[in-house]
Design brief:
Elements (H helix, E strand, L loop, with lengths): L2 H10 L3 H8 L13 H19 L7 H19 L4 H25 L3 H28 L3 E3 L2 E4 L10 H19 L4 H13 L1 H6 L3 H18 L1 H21 L4 H11 L8 H19 L10 H8 L8 E5 L2 E6 L7 H34 L4 H17 L11 H15 L13
Antiparallel strand pairs: 1-2, 3-4
Helix pairs in contact: 2-3, 2-6, 3-5, 4-5, 4-15, 5-17, 6-7, 6-16, 7-8, 7-10, 7-16, 10-11, 10-16, 13-14, 13-15, 15-16, 15-17, 16-17
InterPro entries: O-antigen_ligase-rel_domated (IPR007016), WaaL-like (IPR051533)
Protein name: O-antigen ligase family protein
Membrane topology: Multi-pass membrane protein
C-alpha cells in the first residue's frame, strides 16, 4: 500500500469509535429501553479518548478547552445535589455529563485532522439518508407514526415515542451536507453533498417537526450567507424549485404541510393543543425558576414540580401510536425548551455554566472561521451543527436516542475551535 494511503488509514482509525456512535443510531430502537447501542459506543469512544490522553506526555486539553468543558460540570453537579431522589441525581448527572462533557471531549481528542472530521460528517450524512429513506417509505405506505388520524408521520427507526429522532438526524445531515458543499472547491464533493441535501428536504418535511424546520432553515441560511450572497441566492432558488416540484407538482404531503406551517404562527389565534401545551410548560418552567432563581428545583425535578406550577390549560399528555407500536398516552415531562429546562432545574447558575459554555464554544468557532481560509469544508459544517443545536434548543430538549448526536456535534465544534497546535488545518496526505 502506498505510504500516503497508509497515512490516511492511520489517521482515521482513532475516529472510528465516534463513527460507530453515529452508525449505530441506524438500528431500530427498542421501546422503553433507556440505553442503546449508540450509548455503548459513546462509552467506548470516551474510553479510547482516556487511553489517548494517558499515552500523551502532555495535558490533552488546552486551558481554554478545560474551562469551556469544566464550567458545565459545576452547574450540573450543584443541580444534582438538589434532585428529588438519589436515582434522579445519578441518572441526570450521568446523562448530562455524557452529552455535554464526556462525549464532546472524546470527539475533540479522537478527531486528529480534517480526514477524520470529514469521515464523521459523511457518517452523519449517511445516517440522515438512511433514516430519511425509511421515513419517506413510512409516509408513502401509511406505516409511520400517527398524525391527525393517519399513520403518515415519518419517524424512521425511532418510533412514535420519539418523533423528534428522525427530524434531528435528517436536519443535522442536511446541515452537514450544506457545509460540505459550501466549504470545498472540489467539484465532485460539491455536487454529491448538494444532491444529498436536496434529497433530505422531503423526509425533513414529512417529519412534521416545526422546530426542526425553523432551526434548519436558519442554520442553512446562515451558512449560505457566510459562503457569499451570490451563492446563497442560487441555492435558495434551487431549494425553492425542488419544494415546488415535490409539493406542488407531486402533491407530497401538501395539505398536512400547509396546516403544520400555518400552526407555527397560531400562538394566540386558535392554536392547536400541542402549541398550548408547549407554552403552558414554558410558563411553568419560568414559575419554577422564579421560586428557585439561583440553583433551580433540582436535576430531573421538572416532572415532580410541573403540576404545581402549570395552568389547567395543560393536557394530560400527548397521544402516540403507529409505526409498529400500539396507541398510548405519553406524559409531558419537560418544557421542550432546553434553556427553560436548565433554568427551571439548575437556575441561573446552571444557565450561566452550561449554556454559557455553548455560547463560548460558538464564539471561538466563529472567530476561527473568520480568520481562516483553509479547512472550510470542515469548519462550516462544524459551526453549522453547533448553531443548529443552539437554535433547536429553543423548541426541544435532551431526550431519546438521538440525543447522543448533540455530544458529537459539540465535539466537532470543539475540535475546530479549541484543538491544540492548529490540528484542524492539518491534513493526512495529499487531497
Amino acid at each position: 500500500m502506498p505510504w500516503p494511503a497508509v497515512r490516511r488509514v492511520r489517521s482515521v482509525l482513532p475516529v472510528l469509535p465516534v463513527v460507530a456512535v453515529v452508525v449505530l443510531l441506524g438500528l431500530p430502537v427498542t421501546p422503553g429501553r433507556a440505553a442503546t447501542p449508540a450509548d455503548a459506543a459513546s462509552a467506548l469512544a470516551v474510553l479510547c479518548a482516556v487511553v489517548h490522553a494517558v499515552r500523551q506526555a502532555r495535558a490533552p486539553l488546552t486551558r481554554t478547552a478545560a474551562v469551556v468543558f469544566g464550567l458545565p460540570v459545576v452547574g450540573i453537579a450543584v443541580a444534582a445535589a438538589g434532585a428529588v431522589t438519589t436515582g434522579d441525581a445519578v441518572a441526570g448527572l450521568a446523562r448530562y455529563l455524557q452529552v455535554f462533557v464526556l462525549v464532546p471531549i472524546a470527539v475533540l481528542l479522537l478527531v486528529r485532522d480534517r480526514q477524520g472530521a470529514r469521515l464523521v460528517l459523511w457518517s452523519l450524512l449517511g445516517l440522515a439518508l438512511w433514516q430519511g429513506g425509511i421515513g419517506v417509505r413510512q409516509y408513502l405506505t401509511g406505516t409511520g407514526a400517527s398524525y391527525q388520524g393517519a399513520d403518515i408521520r415519518a419517524v424512521g427507526t425511532f418510533g412514535p415515542s420519539d418523533v423528534m429522532g428522525m427530524a434531528t438526524v435528517v436536519s443535522l445531515g442536511m446541515v452537514a451536507a450544506i457545509g460540505l458543499a459550501l466549504g470545498t472547491r472540489a467539484r465532485r464533493q460539491q455536487v454529491l453533498a448538494t444532491a444529498c441535501a436536496l434529497a433530505l428536504l422531503l423526509p425533513l418535511a414529512l417529519s412534521f417537526s416545526r422546530g426542526a424546520w425553523i432551526a434548519t432553515a436558519l442554520t442553512c441560511g446562515a451558512l449560505l450567507l457566510m459562503a457569499g450572497v451570490r451563492r446563497a441566492a442560487q441555492v435558495f432558488a434551487a431549494v425553492a424549485a425542488v419544494c415546488v416540484v415535490l409539493v406542488g407538482g407531486f402533491g407530497l404531503g401538501a395539505t398536512a404541510l400547509e396546516e403544520r406551517l400555518t400552526s407555527i404562527t397560531q400562538v394566540a389565534d386558535a392554536p392547536d393543543q400541542s402549541v398550548v401545551d408547549r407554552y403552558t410548560m414554558w410558563a411553568a418552567a419560568g414559575d419554577m425558576w422564579s421560586g428557585h432563581p439561583v440553583t433551580g428545583v433540582g436535576l430531573k425535578a421538572f416532572p415532580a414540580h410541573r403540576d404545581g406550577h402549570a395552568s389547567l390549560a395543560l393536557s394530560s399528555g400527548s397521544e402516540t401510536g403507529g409505526a409498529g407500536q400500539a396507541y398510548r398516552r405519553q406524559p409531558l415531562l419537560s418544557p421542550h425548551n432546553m434553556y427553560l429546562l436548565i433554568l427551571s432545574e439548575q437556575g441561573l447558575l446552571g444557565l450561566l455554566t452550561v449554556a454559557g459554555s455553548w455560547l463560548a464554544l460558538l464564539l471561538y468557532a466563529l472567530r476561527r472561521l473568520r480568520r481562516t481560509v483553509r479547512a472550510r469544508d470542515c469548519a462550516l459544517p462544524a459551526c453549522g451543527l453547533l448553531l443548529w443545536q443552539l437554535v433547536n434548543f429553543l423548541y426541544s430538549d435532551i431526550g431519546g436516542p438521538a440525543t447522543i448526536l448533540t455530544g458529537v456535534c459539540l465535539g466537532l465544534a470543539a475540535w475546530w475551535a479549541l484543538a491544540r497546535d492548529g490540528a484542524p488545518t492539518a491534513e493526512a496526505g495529499p487531497r
